[in-house]
Design a protein that fits this description.
86% of the residues lie in helices and 0% in strands. It has 85 residues and is mostly helical.
């Protein structure tokens, strides 16, 4: 499992050729996902502390999941391809 420092190093390595639009879309995707989780908590008619708990517990996995699929996974595929050669 990659540590936080490794994630930031991988992010910098992937963002060298990335446009600012892609970075903005990445952040928007995270925010939309968290908004949907918040809406689900409200739709389930949870008390306010329950909605806050649901939202708070989902922030970490959502952000890490986005970073995994956008930054970590492509680099791992590249490393695996180099090892197989």
């Amino acid at each position: 499992m990659a540590g936080l420092r490794d994630v930031f190093i991988m992010k910098e390595r992937m963002n060298n050729g990335a446009s600012s639009i892609m970075i903005i879309l990445e952040k928007a995707s995270i925010l939309i996902t968290l908004l949907m989780i918040l809406a689900i908590g409200i739709a389930l008619d949870l008390p306010s502390w329950g909605v806050g708990l649901l939202f708070g517990l989902s922030v970490g996995p959502v952000v890490f999941g986005h970073y995994y699929f956008i930054y970590i996974r492509p680099i791992l595929k590249q490393q695996k391809a180099k090892v197989e050669e």
